[in-house]
Amino acid sequence: MSDLATELSAACAAAFEAEGFEARWGAVRRSDRPELADFQCNGCMGAAKLQGLVPRDLAAKIAERISGQGPIERVDVAGPGFLNIRVSGEALSRQTEFIRTDAQAGGGKLEATEKVVIDFGGPNVAKPMHVGHLRSAVIGDTLVRLFRFLGDDVTGDAHLGDWGLQMGHLITELFAEQPDLVYFDPDFKGPYPDEPPVTIEDLGRLYPQASARAKEDPQRNEASQLAVAEMQAGHPGYRALLRHFINVSVEALKVDYSFLGVEFDLWKGESDVDDLIPGMVEDLKAKGLAKLDDGAWIIDVSRESDKKEMPPFMLINSRGGTGYHATDLATIVDRIETLHPDRMLYVVDQRQALHFEQVFRAADMAGLMAEERMEHIGFGTVNGTDGKPFKTREGGVLRLSDLNRMALEEAEKKIGETGLSGDIGDEERGKIAMLVARAALRFADLQNVRTTNYVFDLERFTSFEGKTGPYMLYAAVRIKSLLRRAREAGHEPGPVTIERDTERALVLAMDGFANALAQSHAKRQPHILCEHVYTLAQAFSALYADAPIANEADAAVRASRLGLCEAVLKQLETGLGILGIEAPDRM
Ligand code: ARG
């Protein structure tokens, strides 16, 4: 079973065909004027023009053909030839029952599914995560959930940054502090200790210390460069350190990610594809793509049609080291061998667009994957009120862990203010505050058109009013408690009959779910789904303000409204779940 818009489109398409026109003219969508009609079809104007007919005459013929069909209660011809369609209460009841019992809550599935790798998160070992990493994590995780919900076979990979200069900094700084560690002893025969030589606090301290020192002292920077080159060349002690740094970092990263409800299937990193690089380079040389240029191996990825300068793809630098280009290309080799994806999505800051253009071109030229199967899913920056990328009061970048903590504090404060959680114990209160903070951060981010920048405003994000995560939770919790209280009073939800306009509007809102999901998927734009759940919550609030539900005196009407609530809750929780937002049972 499908949504009403699809069903009506099919009926109209058949009518157009019967009149000798193409089916596409029959497209039906929600009405712009809900007070006049539920749905509209605008095809008559365009179609009539083709055959020199009067649009209103054609509209009358189509109206006659579809009149009384399936869900249609009434069709009117309006203005120059619009078809205004009103659906029957019966069709709306049927649709509600469908949503209530459907495993997808009316969201449908894709007809053609794919095997997709989604590369997101992209945290760097040892460097703390900042608000930019929030965007990649939240958008990427939502796309994973969305694609999976609609039937794609998805693998989400964190793609750790663990191959760059920061690793060299860590090594040299650790050496400066503890030169006696076995990792630095050239005569040590191994095996190296299983216990890490550093804690996460050590890592948090060592990296800023080292990068500050490297800025002052060119020799120190040089030493770090050398250390990375040696690590990349296979220095056993440095490789053992690399493993420890990664393990310690990942444990800490998981804390921040789990606060946000973000999960990965794979925690692979740049360093994991190191052993694939030599073979890949040989292959690129054999294909005549890799060229020697001033001691470096590069690929010329420029094209005649390029309007801007396209710098070469750097395979191996003049020091013999490999960097961001090479590891990304080798990661494609790895993914193709191990996962056989049809498509790869990279959820990374818009400012890396050139990098991905180069990588995708190189991958295509190497015959690894066609360019159009790799997509850079870029996003804008999180700005301060000054319109520049957000900085803390101290002028530094805001760490993700601090952001999470601040959101949690704000959520605790708001819960206290609204007195929502009266008799709730400390543990449950803590859990609720966490869910509110998560909803606030995720919804604030996801509701924007992905590529635009947005202004960071924790006060607004955590508000229970407006287009916010907490407002969404509030709507879900209100329905949950309403259903719970009704059940406690012995009132069960029953079959749904649609009488009021607010009930009709609510079902019509739910009917848009499958389309919102499909659009969100097609455009890789979570805000379309945000818009849907927000509209749904508002339509519910309108009914709530308009009619008694649990307190309705007529038993059949009450059971019907409760049944409607059940369907709304199901779809609301399903939609929010795809956004990675979970509603508590009460708050
Ligand atoms: N670690 C990178 C950064 O922080 C992001 C990695 C994105 N993924 C990729 N395959 N390049 O900028």
UniProtKB/TrEMBL annotation:
One biological process term in Gene Ontology: arginyl-tRNA aminoacylation
Enzyme Commission no: 6.1.1.19
Organism from which the protein derives: Henriciella mobilis
Classification via Pfam families: Arg_tRNA_synt_N, DALR_1, tRNA-synt_1d
Record carries keyword rRNA-binding: no
Self-association state and partner proteins as the record states: Monomer.
EC top class, as a word: ligase
Compartments it resides in: Cytoplasm
Keywords carried by this UniProt record: Aminoacyl-tRNA synthetase, ATP-binding, Cytoplasm, Ligase, Nucleotide-binding, Protein biosynthesis
Lineage of source species: Bacteria, Pseudomonadati, Pseudomonadota, Alphaproteobacteria, Hyphomonadales
Name of the encoding gene: argS
Catalytic activity annotation: tRNA(Arg) + L-arginine + ATP = L-arginyl-tRNA(Arg) + AMP + diphosphate
Membership in a protein family: Belongs to the class-I aminoacyl-tRNA synthetase family.
GO MF term set: arginine-tRNA ligase activity; ATP binding
Main location: cytoplasm
Protein known as: Arginine--tRNA ligase
Coiled coil location: none
GO CC, one annotated term: cytoplasm
PROSITE patterns hit by this protein: AA_TRNA_LIGASE_I
Domain DALR anticodon binding: start-end pairs: 472-587
Residue ranges of the motif 'HIGH' region: 123-133
Domain Arginyl tRNA synthetase N-terminal residues, every copy: 2-87
